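Recall the central idea of this unit: under ordinary conditions, the amino acid sequence of a chain determines the structure it adopts. In this exercise we apply that idea directly, starting from the sequence alone.
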Amino acid sequence: MKQLKIWRSLLAALASVGLTACAADAPTSPKVSGQASSGLITELAEGLVSKDALVRKNALAQDITVKAVIGKDGGTIAIPDAGFYVTIPAGAVKDDTEFTVTALKGQLVAYEFGPHGITFPKALQARQDLSSTNWRLLPLKPLIAGYFVDQSDLNSATKTAILSEVIQGVTAPLTKQFSWSIEHFSGYVVAW
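Accordingly, the structure predicted from this sequence is:
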């Protein structure tokens, strides 16, 4: 409980000086989406939510980073060892851009993307293979993707994440896949 009070105090202080989620000068910082009235989200402070993170059956021993130069024709980036794939559609970027995707070490299904803060006129499509995670069909708990501001928002001990944006996705139970759209680059975790 003391840790929650510290978080609230810190968040209130940050809000009072006008910090935004991605950068202080970002005109299009992320917005909180999702419905607090649904009972699926526990509100903390300043629109942040705490969610249970999806975890891997076998933790990643180290970060896995993949880089690729993607141009106006689009492309795909994959981290097979993490079960993660992202498709960049044609027109998502105007010029050749070096994309970086890092699967974060540990059990949480979490990723960081770069260049940090870039936004896309056409959303990217991310896909997580669920077969190597603790996902299960029953009880029915909808998966979401969540934007986290900093890796300190991820708690490996409690397997939770503090999120400033909740993104609805689609779970395909037969193929054990979860997909969601990415409109900007920062950090994302799969959660419920």
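The radius of gyration is 16 Å.
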